[in-house]
Amino acid sequence: MRLFLIKLKELAEREKILNAQISSFTASLGYIDPDFDMKMIKKDYDTAKLLRQKPFNKNLSYLISQVFKQNNYWRNLYSITLDAIKIDRELLSTSRIEVTMPHQCAIGNALRKLYKQGIIERQEKYLHYKIKKRGIFDTSEWRLKQIENEG
C-alpha cells in the first residue's frame, strides 16, 4: 500500500511538471507568433480523430456515382451500400459482404448531401401500415435525377 502511494505521488509530480512545461511552451510560441492558436493544433491532431478508420477508401460521391452508373433504378440504402462496398474493395458480385452500420451511415450522409444539391432524387417506398416508419433512410429509395429536355 505504501508503495502504491509513493508511485501515486510521483505521478502527480510528473503531471505538474508536464503541465508547467506545456504552459511555458505555449507561452513561448505566443511570443514567437502572436497569431498562433494552440486550440487549432489540438483540433487538427485529435488522437481520436486520427485513429478512427474510415469505412471506405475511395470518395463516397464517386462510389455512389459508380453504383448508379451500373443501374439507375430506385434503390434502398442497403443495396446502394452493398454495391459501394463491392466497388470500393473491387470485389466480384459473388463475394460475401457484410454491410455494417458505419458503412450505412457514411453512405446515408453522402446521399443526404447529394439530395440537397439536387443531384439525386428520393421517393417514399410503400410500407405496410403496421410497419413502423423510422427515419428518412428506412422509408426511402434513391436514384440519379433524370435529365429533363427543355423544348
The biggest sheet amounts to:
2 strands, antiparallel
Quote the distance from N terminus to C terminus. Answer: 88 Å
Q: What Rg is obtained from the alpha carbons, in whole angstroms?
A: 25 Å
Q: Which outline best applies?
A: elongated
> Which range best describes the helical content: under 10%, 10-25%, 25-40%, 40-55%, 55-70% or over 70%?
55-70%
CATH topology of the largest domain: Arc Repressor Mutant, subunit A
Task: Please write the string of helix (H) and strand (E) elements.
Answer: HHHHHHEHE
- Largest sheet: spatial strand order: 1-2
Per DSSP, what share of the residues sits in E-state strands of 2 or more residues? 5-15%
CATH class of the largest domain: Mainly Alpha
Low-confidence stretches: none
Contiguous helical run count: 7
Broad structural category: mainly alpha
Extended strand count: 2
How many individual domains?
Answer: 2
Overall CATH architecture of the largest domain: Orthogonal Bundle
Mean pLDDT across residues: 83
What is the structure about, briefly put?
The protein contains seven helices and two strands. By secondary structure, the protein is mainly alpha-helical.
